[in-house]
Amino acid sequence: MIDTPTVDIPHEETHGRRRPVRPSRSEAPARGEAPGATRVLTMSTIAFTIMFAVWLMFGILGKPIQNEFGLTDVELSWISAVAVLNGSMWRLPAGMLADRIGGRRVMIAMLLIGAVASFAVSFANSYPMLLVLAFLVGFVGNSFSVGVSWNNACFSDRRKGFALGLFGAGNVGASVTKFIGPAIIAATAGATYTLGVQGGWRLIPVLYALLLLATAAATVAFTPRHDRMPGATKSVGQMLAPLSDVRVWRFSLYYVVVFGAYVALSAYLPAYYVDNFGVDLATAGLLTATFIFPASLLRPLGGWVSDRWGARRAMYFTFFVMLAASGVLMMPNGHIVLYQPDGGTRDILHYSISLGLFVALVFVMGCAMGIGKAAVYKHIPTYFPDNVGSVGGLVGMLGGLGGFFLPPMFAYAKAWTGMANTAFGILFGLTAICLVWMHWTVHRMLGAESPHLSDELEVPVSPRSPIDSLTHEEARA
């Protein structure tokens, strides 16, 4: 008997009985890769990497900004949060627009808009102004759904998981500022340059503005002028129709955990290392990079694993590893005090997490997130092949909004409890909810369609199997 990964099988009612229905492929005939697909993947990944760096630059700029403006931890958290908000809330319309007019046009427009907003950040002179400019520069975060739509239209199903995973590895841009930021800030503090640009943290947004302009020019020069536009003939209603499917919202919650938490931790960890382990900002940036790199660079591996063994298996792996790592990270430092009959006390079970163990566990969590991010997006072109822009946009939007809500939640939890590690307790709870919902869905499906298999993890292929009608590609979702 041959096992294949389980799938979320849609059903319809027939004479009181539920039977599986294949994900529709009537409007998505198998197509080869578009001319210039490799150039599209290369340039879109470069553009996304730089825009992701711009989107999350306040993670490393936060400490100098906090010192200059005299901000509290909660006030500082809102600077990153509003950038993440604007980089998430437009992902759905951005993905739909890319489906309709082509990803190339939308990507170039985002690069140009981001350059203007990033340059303006350098001239912020008050906390309210900084909030407004952080919000505006955050718009570049919506480039993710544009790139997903653009690459999805260019690649065949056979290579789509890997291509989307490689594009998504542009998340590594979050580490760029961690590497170059502290050195540039220290070397240029107090200097003044052309057009009144000041050194220190204010120089970083200007350098990013120049990179964005250069990338826009390269995208114009090297990518094919003619795009595939799968949504060109569809109405907005048709593009939004799949959003009524509960699976879209479940995938979105998964993405809150593997991507929203990634965004939040990328901004949260530098200050965490400085405040809790006493390292300097440059060291904190490097330690944070040990989380960002695996969470980004393993995304292509996650796409390959999902293509090879199925996205569901990859998600189980992701959630179990994240639960184990966050379960240790959320444990507070301290000890238990025993009050003895003679009135004395005795301290037992002393616990304090070392810097090395903390970095190792965060690294492991990053590895799981990298695989999980690709696994979530592997589901989308399989089940919604004609609406990748809208579905991918919604999943990305809600996942990104998780990155908006989590930093303030971390800050408020720390303020209320006095313990910074409560952030990992929040992450543990979210991961547990996702794992329970996913496993309940699998168990319910097996119990309804094959009661004798209700204790199995995967649905075996047999002459009577409810998934016999699924294609090989669909069975691996």
Automatic annotation (TrEMBL):
GO (cellular component) term, any one: plasma membrane
Name the GO terms of the biological process aspect.
Answer: nitrate assimilation
Q: Keywords in UniProt for this one?
A: Membrane, Nitrate assimilation, Transmembrane, Transmembrane helix
List GO molecular-function terms, semicolon-separated.
Answer: nitrate transmembrane transporter activity
Sequence intervals crossing the membrane: 40-61, 106-124, 130-150, 162-191, 203-222, 248-269, 281-302, 314-331, 351-376, 388-406, 418-438
Q: How does it sit in the membrane?
A: Multi-pass membrane protein
Highest taxon of source: Bacteria
What family does this belong to? Answer: Belongs to the major facilitator superfamily. Nitrate/nitrite porter (TC 2.A.1.8) family.
What's the protein called, per UniProt? NarK/NasA family nitrate transporter
Taxonomic source organism: Propioniciclava coleopterorum
